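Reviewer 2 asked us to include a model.

Predict the structure of this chain.
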Amino acid sequence: MSLSSEIVVVDDPIQFYDAQTIIPSLTFTDHHDHDHDHDEEEDLEPFDSERLPPTLATEIQKFLRVANLIQSEEPRIAYLCRFHAFEIAHNLDRNSTGRGVRQFKTSLLQRLEQDEETTIRRRKEQSDVRELRRVYHAYKEYIIRHRGAFDLEHSHREKLINARRIASVLYEVLKTVTNAADHQALADRDSIHSRPKFYVPYNILPLDHGGIHNAIMQLPEIQAAVAAVRNVRGLPSPQIFHKHGNFIDLFEFLQCSFGFQEGNIANQREHLILLLANCHSRKTNNKASLSRLGDEALDDLMKRFFKNYTDWCKFLERRNNIRLPVVKQEAQQYKILYIALYLLIWGEAANLRFMPECLCFIFHHMAYELHGMVTGAVSLKTLEKVMPAYGGGKESFLNNVITPIYRVTHEEAQKNKSGTAYSTWRNYDDLNEYFWSPDCFEIGWPMRLDHDFFCVQSTKKHKVKKARPPPTPTPTPTPTTDVENHTEEVENHTEENENEPMVEEEIHEPKWLGKTNFVEIRSFWQIFRSFGRMWGFFIMSLQALVIMAYHDLKYPLDIFDKEVFDDVTSIFVTSAFLRLIEAILDIAFAWKARTTMEYSEKVKQVLKMVVAGVWTIVLPVLYTTSGKKYSCYSSEIQPDRWFDELCFSPYLIAVAIYLMTDAIELVLFFVPAIRKYIEVSNFKICTFLLWWTQSRLYIGRGMQETQLSVLKYTFFWVLLLCSKFTFSYYFEIRPLIKPTKEIMEFGEDMYDWHELFPVVKSNAGAIVAVWAPVTIVYFMDTQIWYSVFCAIFGGLYGILHHLGEIRTLGMLRSRFHTLPSAFNVRLIPPPLKNDQSPQNNLLRMILFKGSDCGNDGIAKFVLSFPSLAVVVHLINKCTHRELDLMTIPISSELFSGMVRWPIFLLANKFSTALSIAKDFVGKDEILFRKIRKDNYMLCAVKECYESLKYILEILVVGDLEKRVISRIINEIEDSIERSSFLEEFRLNELPALQAKCVELAELLVEGNENHHGKVVKVLQDMFELITNDLMVNGDRILEFLNSMQPVEDVAFFCRRIDPQLFESYAEKNSIHFPLPDTGPMNEQIRRFLLLITIKDEAMDMPANLEARRRISFFATSLFMNMPSAPTVRNMVSFSVMTPHYLEDINFSMRELESSNEQVSILFYMQKIFPDEWKNFLERLGCENVDGVKDDGREEDLRNWASFRGQTLARTVRGMMYYREALKLQAFLDMAEDEDILEGYDTCERNNRTLSVQLDALADMKFTYVVSCQMYGHQKLCGDPHAQDVLDLMIKYPSLRVAYVQGREEIVEDKPQKVYYSMLVKAVNGFDQCFFSRMVHVISRDQLCHHWSKNSSQSSQTVNIGRQKFSANYQLVFRLFKAFMFIGVLSVIISLSLICKLSVKDIIVCCLAFLPTGWGLIMIAQAIRPKIDHTGLWEFTKVLAKWYDYGMGVVLFAPIAILAWLPIISAFQTRFLFNQAFNRRLQIQPILAGKKKKNR
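Predicted model (structure tokens):
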């Protein structure tokens, strides 16, 4: 029997069925875990829908997944879905040429043959079409019935999503079956074809018809953005592009016009809508205006998107092609079109995004074509409408624009010789630099692929052939040129060229352009050339300091002495020679770019060398001939004070001319606004002035700092250099002048000097030996001074900006009462009135410490702080008890200003107050003043009193007992009002009452029904204790009790005894025990118990250092100077991307239990994190690892280890905290008082409408993407890492994964490898691709996929990995250090004994070695390539390590010790300098440099 024998159409009327008989199957069940209850279902196992051939996966996977979902309830429908998948697979690859296609088709065919008879018997209708129709209509009715319910619970939402997915697939299957049937077979065939799709995969915005009721689509800003994008009025007719029907939106129009990919269109459509919505919500304060997109938001986006493009046009002196009409509504449509066009170009550019000016070139031409199409421009020659040069065809833009340019980048990269051939290939920067010149327009549009830009290999060959003269380059149109005129010019040029006679000319092959402005040359001399100004300044300063020391100057102003000044001015001669060397090095380093360098740049390099050479002749000659011949003009000549006169010489005049360019640069440096104007200006005089000092490049122009920043920068370096030169002059240079003079006075007699120099005729060697170490230190100690000044200025900056305001738990407790005020200022948006701007909040931010926040602000802080504690608990950083100690109860009292502070603040406060009151003798006012002095103590006493009243009010239900308790409470409160509390109560009995309260609270917490009698006894004990011992006039309570008891006159003896106080009798209950099992009640009793029992140990909670750090950091951040937080709706959206290659995602159980040197990873982590392991077991309720495994909690165990092993799972969890924080912040923005009292977690669970709104706002503001480059390959190979990635997406539904999928496509019966950039998310347990974009690449290693999001992009690179160290290596290394220490100690002792060195001499030698060692380290760093593979470099690293530690101790230990003084500690110096001490001087990272690949 044929497989399709039952797929026939029977002319039956359409019947509708009850959806409830089918919909239960919608609940998602993993396709690996289906159970089969019938014998016929034993063979109906799920067919593998995940491991599919790459050429077929995209087209057939959804059918196979749906078949697995519904096969238990509707096996025949599952069979039809698989049959449809087989037909698609066979049509895509009839010859089975793709990898794995033949095996897949065979396996699926066998499954179909196996299921055919079985599924027919279970069919509920007479034909397959009726069966399909029945199930399809059932799902359709379910979808229609729940379409508007966007606030469903999570399980119901998944059920609705599944229904939409299944209905969408069934619609396609039914449509295919209908097409294959006879025309008379199905009367409603046309109606079936016209039905829309029920489910379209989407990322954030469900823009299909079925998603209009989604919560995010209900946001007014989203609706306004969607309406603006879908405004297609005034666009050209779709028939021009051979399209049936109208354009859906502007993006579809651009796709038909320029041939962009569908995945790119869908991605950028969502991208732009989210950008418009976010910008619109920030720019609009009035909620009523959110429903219509404003021009302010569009103008802001236009400035941000096209700033680089407009700057590029201005730099090339071209008018930009962004043309806007006068009509306001049309202008808005044009703006969206231009932004969308740029996004589509950028989205499909792939690696060409590294060439932003190349994208500007592409956009420049395509924007001109876009304007021509929209305005309906017609060519005067052809009388046809202007159309794009590359447009209409499928993937036309990718194939014709991006691929040719990318091919150049790829072929150039093949010539780099593993990165060593720096001058023979062009990288992205080199290719992009070509578009900084007007020559780029010679490429033309359409691009001339024979242009030199596309030439990769240079050749010297040329031919002679007959050809027409080269056409005159077509001028690029400007905005003032009409489209018709431009088209006519192009056609006129073509006709003129065709009419030209054939001439014999020399046609050259395309020329390789080479590098344009810079060719990298790696040389030792780069150290001097790159820091030429620094070296020159230090050399001239050293020369001046030596001259000053030689003249024995004691004060800086003595330099103006005539003789001294004459000698000091010789530094300009040195400067001239240094500049000549610099000019020569410039030419040497640019030599390889001489063939491609611009002519003006060559002239400048030569002129610089010539001018420098002239000055090296002029200045020395003038200095030697006329340096001391001054011409002075003064009314009274004073030779000894020449600076009172106006004196100059020819040499000084030459120096003034020589320094003229430096003076101009100095002025421009101190006035950055003028320099910025000169750099960005196109005026010829500005270009000429800038030409001499720097190359005219597009980038780096106008990047000057503000005037204030320049002044602060100058002040820092002037102070640093003054300190350095002062120290160098008085302690390095000046002490050597006298020994140098003495050595010079010895004369030239021959003398013996060591065996290395047996006969020495000059004392120059001795002078060099004396000055060499000092000179090295002079050049190298600037970094030491820099480190010191950075620490000092960093400390001052931290003090001024409140960095480290709260560092310890003690400081946190003392400042905790100010946190609500700080939280209210920093994180609660102020209500902005119409006439109030955000800038007016500056005074509010400065003065918040002295003002109390509103009751609403206190409530919001109380709601937020426990969320931090819960997070700390969930990551096993604290115990259950510590969580209780950090929790702040939420009650209606918050709105009256009363806060129940966390118990760790109130620890021991009640006990202390009890001790004070117990032994106090005096008046009530003095006692109350002592208690009020500590606010936390007062709060603890009040809360304990109120809690006890509340507990007794709930516990005691008898009328008599209630009256008695009420009478006692009235006595207490009346005595307090009369200030006679100490007279009427014996407070020395309070400890006994406390003990009874503890006993009562413990019984209530335990809640054991069998302890009813114990509770009664404790209450009776408390009553007697209060009335007999505590109260002075307790007999009044007893009299009141006796008066309330009825007295019966009986004439006979009665054995009945009345129940005692608090005792229950028969049906009469005096107490309600156990208490109602409600969360708030139990929490309050536990809190009361902790308040009256907690001691000093709670002051050190939480014990985990990481938990302390997080809480302290949160508190510290509230006191930092930062802008006020806007509402979530007005926040700037942002995205985060984490690259991931093959690093671990989650530890597997096998990895955790595998041992390396008999130590498993799990055991290792238990020893590293003992407190967190204990907290983890407590949270799970297990005693050990075996208990965790027995309870089936291996997944929790894997997560615990993975979150501490720097795996991807830990990174994702940390990033998802951003989303949770946004939701909490949005809740604070939207919540009413009732919602706050209910709590965030409770409200999110119960109030579905509010919950989905929070999710919608979080999705609109934050997106997290993990770039798993190997995910596609891992899925095909069945790698467990792929399942780990999927588990992450299931756990975090807002997580997105981007990866590159290699796919074989059949082209002309031949497989062709094509790469796609994919973006997926988890939908009901599967990964679903919603954006797919093809990238034309040659090598997989060069893929760079980047999915745009709804925000300004932020990239974060996370280092994921583990380092494994060998215990044997560590042992050898420690032994080596021990022997080294013993050896150094032996040398010191030997020198002390032999050379008779004192302790003072040894200390002086060590101090003298510190700067010398620094110089030796720097020399070793400079020559590292020569000694890298020798033992000398290892010795240098060891020396650097000890030098690092030693200098850190010498510099920062005294400061750290002084920081413990109370005065300095108040200024936070201890925290700041300890940070600097911990970081030390960072010498080892400098030496490490770039690690090699094999290390």
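The longest strand covers residues 1310-1323. The chain has 61 helices and twelve strands. We have added this to the supplementary material.
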